[in-house]
Amino acid sequence: MAETGYWAGAAGAVLFVLVFLVDGGTRPGYSPIRHPVSALALGRRGWIQSANFVVTGMAVTAGAITMATSGQAVLLGAAVAVFGLGLVASGIFRMDPMRGYPPGTPEKDPAVFSARHRMHDLAGAVVFLALPAAAAVAAFMLPGLAWRLGSGLLAVGLLIGFGLFGTAWEEDSPRTGALQRALIVPGWLWLAGVFVQYARA
To answer: Which spans of this chain does the record mark as coiled coil (predicted)?
Structure first.
């Protein structure tokens, strides 16, 4: 049934948020305020976040394919699929240890980043640009003024927030992780809501 893909996408988006919040809040030596979500893929428990990226990305992509092939929202489905595949790539290519995590890692950035880290950065850029693009498309496609207005505002907010996060990351702000979470939580939950909306349509 078509609804299965939508529910899988919604569950994946919500699961992603729950996993990184719980794991990040209980990980020794990890600071959710300073460190990005991607850093959770490092260390002995790193497999949890790596799996979180991949499973969520596959679930979201399944929902996006359902959306696109149902004929209800081809363009929106394509944008969400790019987002989902970016998540999968983020799980396959981990960032380099840096900025004090895992514990014992130097506080500074590596002198040279690995190819794996550069691929992770590229995948992250895809993720954080594809989601506001999807929200912008949704602002013209979703039924109801509330959904359209909310999606449009989210698209603008995510783009601005992505720029602020990029600056915070470059400056190694002590609140980099908190800023990233302020983008991820509403963005991922909005996407879950969109999937639920289509599942119930």
So the answer is: none
Reported as a single tens digit per residue, the pLDDT across 71-125 is 778 999 999 999 999 999 999 999 999 999 999 999 999 999 999 999 999 999 9
Residue pair 88/57 in contact (Cβ under 8 Å)? The answer is yes
Quickly state the pLDDT bin for 148 (edges 50, 70, 90).
Answer: very high
Name the region of 108 (left: φ>0; alpha: ψ -120 to 50; beta: rest).
beta
pTM: 0.95
